[in-house]
Task: inverse folding
């Protein structure tokens, strides 16, 4: 923690470079990913301040759109589309994801009630679990990749997203980041497979 505080104290030394950011933000991308500390979007993409508008949730979950019930996630998506007019949305899952692991192997709800509630409210467990029923090898990787596809499908149910897609002014991308190697794979929508970016 102390090193983080020390760096924060020194950050103002970069004020000259940061000053233009006070005039506004014009990111091109909404980057939706997990809260996991090992996933650092700006580091992975080389993005600078102002390049990526981020939505981070446990398990990079996008809730179903619900007209009568607002949520922080829906508000973030709407702002990115309607106000910032981003032209790309990336949903990036990752290896070793604790949230997707919790979907596959749920423990006792009493130990982590908020996590269980979040996953129960937002995740079609059967869809994510399907990934493990037909693929050998790394079941969690398969589940995360299937999970990314589920979130991309969900996004299309958000009116702001659907409207921009219809007008051809928005592209959706599914990514998978391997924590231990730094490899990024992208979803090929034609066949549903992830391949190196
Ligand atoms: Zn995760």
Result:
């Amino acid at each position: 923690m102390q090193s983080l505080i020390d760096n924060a104290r020194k950050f103002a030394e970069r004020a000259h470079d940061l000053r233009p950011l006070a005039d506004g933000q014009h990111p091109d991308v909404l980057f939706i990913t997990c809260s996991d500390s090992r996933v650092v979007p700006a580091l992975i993409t080389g993005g600078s301040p102002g390049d990526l508008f981020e939505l981070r949730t446990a398990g990079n979950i996008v809730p179903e759109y619900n007209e009568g019930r607002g949520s922080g996630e829906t508000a973030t998506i709407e702002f990115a589309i309607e106000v910032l007019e981003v032209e790309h949305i990336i949903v990036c899952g990752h290896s070793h994801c604790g949230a997707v692991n919790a979907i596959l192997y749920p423990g006792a709800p009493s130990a982590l009630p908020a996590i269980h509630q979040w996953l129960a409210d937002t995740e079609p467990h059967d869809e994510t679990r399907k990934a493990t029923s037909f693929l050998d090898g790394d079941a969690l990787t398969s589940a995360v990749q299937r999970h990314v596809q589920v979130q991309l499908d969900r996004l299309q149910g958000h009116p702001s997203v659907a409207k921009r897609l219809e007008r051809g002014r928005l592209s959706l991308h599914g990514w998978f980041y391997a924590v231990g190697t730094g490899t990024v794979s992208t979803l090929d929508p034609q066949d549903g497979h992830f391949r190196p970016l």
